Amino acid sequence: LGESCRTELVWKPGGRCQRQRPPLPEPGVRGGAESGHLPFGQEFPSLEEKPQFPGASADFVYKLEFIQPDLISGIPIYRVMDRQGQILDPSQDPQVRCERPLSPIGESRDIPLPPHFAPVLPLAVPAQGSSRPCPCPPAVGAAYAIKRENTDRVVICYFGEGAASEGDAHAGFNFAATLECPILFFCRNNGYAISTPTSEQYRGDGIAARGPGYGILSIRVDGNDVFAVYNATKEARRRAVAENQPFLIEAMTYRIGHHSTSDDSSAYRSVDEVNYWDKQDHPISRLRHYMLSRGWWDEEQEKTWRKQSRKRVSPAPQPVQGEPLSMHPTEGGPVLQGFPLDILGSRKLCSKRGGGGLARKLQVW
Q: Which residues constitute the domain of residue 57?
């Protein structure tokens, strides 16, 4: 693992030979004496009745008492705007220019399913996949490689509270903390892991509360507030580069739509619940209020944008509506009017019996 794990043999009084890891951390530095972890070869400071265990930093108590989870107040939720798009604290206004929220993130390219869409290079954003397990351990590996390269880059790993219930997430948190990797764990807590509500996923205070247990700096933000997410991510990235340590961001939000086209969320939640979040606390509506108050957006611009967006999306399913299947061999396999079959699903759909279902699938797509 390099110089950080190199050891030396140091002679102690009495002819004892003891391993020592040079150089010794200074007090106050992570891994030093103040952290509760004494480096190899360092003598105990005194013989006082103080805990010297290497696995924790604590004091002795003389009363039998278990820690109650509800004694610790919930982690607060950081936000910049209220639901009407008004800045609550001017010092937290990111002062973005009007072009920033109006500009697209970048062009995307379609990836054969099960992976979804990903921006084109050189943005270095790998495609996400439905069948892929929790991404935390591979992301930590990438962050550790970046650390060894000694560059000013970081890794940001997006996942939901459902993925945080998997063991891989805990392994990723622990590796990132112990290896001091420049990584941002970004958890989107939208209330449901497909159909499983958070009340059936965990009993603690969400995901951000797990960070301190691993020694990770953590924050909980209003995920429906685009500026709160922007500020927290920007600051976490800056510190991850400067300090070589991980950060955990939990964005509290709500999934209004179904999990997928095969999901019917009305089976496990009420329509009133969905309507509340859609009408009262929608992230797009909040940003729209902000842009209207700044004069960056108006009703005429929105009508034009909606019309142009429909023109871009609507032509996609047209070739298969009311027409027989048309097969064209290509280098990547047969296609249906320009759509690779491995994107659309099983080739069994390419039959007279399955043609209607495929057309409906494309229409939804």
A: 1-61
